[in-house]
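TICKET: design request
STATUS: open
ATTACHED STRUCTURE:
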């Protein structure tokens, strides 16, 4: 049970950090500015960063479990 809790915490931290990083990268590549120069809420960038951070978090969760099981078996 401890392996899953630690892996979950690691994946949550990674999801948060990767979500912020991916959002900032997307915001830099595709800035939310209209033709008149007004800024607006970049909902497309938010959705893309949310889904990519979920995928990254799932991968990190699986990798953290595997690494901890290998260390436990040694």
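STATUS: resolved
RESOLUTION: sequence designed for all positions
ATTACHED SEQUENCE:
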């Amino acid at each position: 049970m401890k392996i899953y809790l630690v892996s979950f915490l690691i994946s949550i931290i990674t999801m948060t950090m990767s979500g912020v990083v991916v959002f900032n990268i997307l915001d830099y590549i595709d800035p939310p500015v209209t033709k008149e120069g007004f800024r607006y809420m970049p909902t497309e960038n938010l959705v893309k960063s949310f889904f990519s951070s979920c995928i990254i978090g799932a991968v990190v969760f699986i990798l953290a479990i595997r690494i901890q099981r290998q260390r436990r078996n040694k």
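CLOSING REMARK: The mean pLDDT is 89. Residues 2-73 form one domain.
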